[in-house]
Amino acid sequence: MVHYKRAESDEELKAILQLQRENLPSALSREEKSAQGFVTVEHSEAQLKTLNEIEPHIIAKDDDYVIAYLLVMTAESANEIPILQPMFELFGHVPFAGRTVSDFHYVVVGQACVSRPYRGKGVLDACYAYYRKSLQGRYDFAVTEIAATNLRSLRAHERIGFTDIHHYTAPDGIEWVMVAWNWKLLASDGR
User: Fold this and answer.
1) At what angle do helices 123-135 and 151-160 cross, to 10 degrees?
2) DSSP secondary structure code for residue 52 in this structure
3) What is the pLDDT at residue 156?
4) Average pLDDT per run of 10 along the chain, which is 191 residues long?
5) What range does the domain containing 66 cover?
6) Number of folded domains that form the chain
7) pLDDT score of 179
8) What is the dihedral angle through the alpha carbons of 96, 177, 110, 88, rounded to the nearest 10 degrees?
9) Which CATH number fits the domain that encloses residue 90?
10) With DSSP H G I counted as helix, E B as strand and the rest as coil, what are the percentages for the chain, rounded to 5?
11) Residue 105 exposed, middle or buried by CB count within 10 Å (0-12, 13-18, 19+)
């Protein structure tokens, strides 16, 4: 039976890393990346543990097996993953709700991943429902960026309620789409 929770143990963090490794572009064929999506950033165990100590990650487990995760990052964890520092810096320039992203108390979806056998079964939606339930009282919205070529992820995040707020091309030529899930507006309209 699938249940949702915050990551608590080293074993759970190691299981996140295993699922992450299985879904990095280097582990997937071009066809798999196109059809199934992929994760971009590879974390070390120490990085993942540090992030989890700041704000625990969300995981889905089927019995003892981690089948999905949503990594949680905050402004406090901005310097923990060097490759993501430009995203945090960009938050100070990206307009959102009449201000900039960094003017708010936001939480970042550091990465989302569902194990292949569990895809298309509502696990991601349930993970995000738990993410929102766990974090909405302390943050105004969730924000993340998705590679423009990761169409499966873009569609899934749109279905959850994320909206595009910014597009840009990184120095390495990768096009990114920044999306936000505005909980304050959702709370006011009953969703």
Assistant:
1) 50
2) H
3) 93
4) 96 96 82 77 91 97 95 92 89 94 95 92 96 94 93 93 95 94 66 44
5) 2-188
6) 1
7) 97
8) -50
9) 3.40.630.30
10) 40, 30, 30
11) exposed
